[in-house]
Amino acid sequence: IWQTVWCEFVPAAGYITKLLPVADIKNNRVLIKPEANVLDRTEILQVNVVINVNQSKNCQFKNRISKTGSIGRFIPVKIPSECLLLWSPEEPSLYSLQAQLLNSKGEVVDSVDSYFAMREISSGFDDKGVPRPMLNSKFVFHVGTLDQGFWPDGIYTPPTDEALQYDIKAHKEMGFNMIRKHVKVEMKRWYYHCDRLGILVWQDIPAVVKQHPQSSAGEFLDEAERIVKMLSFHPSIVLWTVYNEGWGQPSDELATAAITAKLRGIDPTRLINSLSGINFNAVKPNYDIGVGSSIDIHHYPEPGRVKYNDFRFSVAGEYGGISYYIKDHSWDFKRCHGYGPDVESADKLITAYQNYQNQVGEISEGDSYGISASVYTEITDVETECNGLLTYDRIFKVEARKIYNINKQLVDKYAERFQQTDTDTSTTDEHGLNRDPVTKESGLFELKFF
Length: 450
Known about the structure:
Elements: E1 14-24, E2 29-38, E3 46-52, E4 65-70, E5 75-78, E6 95-102, E7 108-116, E8 121-125, E9 131-135, E10 138-139, E11 142-147, H1 161-173, E12 178-181, H2 188-197, E13 200-204, H3 217-231, E14 237-244, H4 253-266, E15 271-276, E16 294-298, E17 313-320, H5 346-363, E18 371-377, H6 400-417
Parallel strand pairs: 11-12, 11-18, 12-13, 13-14, 14-15, 16-17, 17-18
Antiparallel strand pairs: 1-2, 2-5, 3-4, 3-6, 6-7, 8-9, 9-10
Helix pairs in contact: 1-2, 3-4, 5-6
């Protein structure tokens, strides 16, 4: 069991089951949709939401904002402009939120403490007319890794909550601003840590490797719908990936388009990648069906080249796979393999990584392919896959700072163009995470499995 399981007593009249916050930045407001299980049908229950907006130095609004509405309907809450803090990987600002379930007498029957972020993700065009993913109406280049979320002792289950945070912090230490969570749904606490630490998440919908028989297509869609609904609370998630390399993809392109449209209808607030790796399309290889927010290519070891089209941005969805084996920190040293070149030292790994990221920078330009995001394979070794930047037991193979400096060049290239600069000059944030990491010892810990 890798998902969270718990038991709790609930009030006899009813209880809150879910909160869905949706940021409306243009109108300086958040829309909160509460859902509840009403057990006493004789009671007419309402929900009161209470928000603490006094989290900015410029905010002079000292009182909490309170507003009452109906179960199952969005409750709009206005945020004073001087109190508005936008969420980003650099500044993952979260507002505290309390929802109170009220009976007909106005008495609090149940209450839930939660949070939300003022964050919008969309597709748009840059100053050269190239389609790009927009974070709060500004283009941010997504530099990420493939993260499968495996652990040596628990497989899908991390040993501790500290371990659960470890890979996220490792990404931040190395200058990545995005994680592609590959064919796994993590426990919700992992997404909470992504929300508060500040990392963009691309979430895969897990699927079987082979094409779905017609009889199981309904089950896949049902699971996909439940995944999207379950995780839609989290502001760190900015993109859903429906299919990976044709795994489980229907051979009918209309079916793929229909499933993509169905999920986009459930969550219109996020981007959607219909097929990660169009060159592995189950309909026919190298065929772009033309749906979703992005066009995504997989290529090893060099990053693939696919040009944006119309309104969809282009993505180097998988590449890299540089293999560097550390004998005493390998699952099965004799069977170690990767998807890219084998190197014999940390310095050679850095050199190869620098080469690939330089290529990403070149093809990211609008007069080239206009790539807007890159997903390097991968963050950690996984059993006999030895192409991680960390070993399976989470030991850094290279100095974090060296990877950080390479990635920072790519992110800053567009941050400067669109005047996205971090004005905070402190070296650490409230979570003790170094903004200017030096080595693996800076704020991280070592996990021992072998």
